[in-house]
Amino acid sequence: MSSETIKFNWSCKNTWRISAKNTAWCLLGCAIGDFGTILFFQITKIPFPVLGIMTLAIINGLITSIILETIILLRQNFKFSNALKTALGMSFISMISMEVAMNLTDYLLTGGAILTWWVVPIMLIVGFLTPWPYNYWVLKRFNISCH
Question: What is the arithmetic mean of pLDDT over 39-56?
Fold first, then answer.
């Protein structure tokens, strides 16, 4: 092993705890827009293709997550432009992976764009677990976090 090689530490409990908190905030933001969109179409029964509903759900989940994370950062005395830039930059990979995982889970279990009492918890668990290691890695590697 060369002197330039850095051994990455995946066993830091504090970093796992902080990254879990960050991931949970991201999940909350994504779930609001995602589930809200699916529920809207489920309640109104507006005829719209499943893929269209799921695409809108993903987009709305990304938007609500960015809004929530920007608000959290503003409350930590970030300037608006820095808060928005941080929410977009650091969390966007997490949000996309979370949204795709949640909607793919919904599609595989229900046929897509259907919220039921049993699928929502599974979607949330999958949505949390998918980006969590990445969030740990970002926090550990760059010593940064959104929240």
Answer: 96
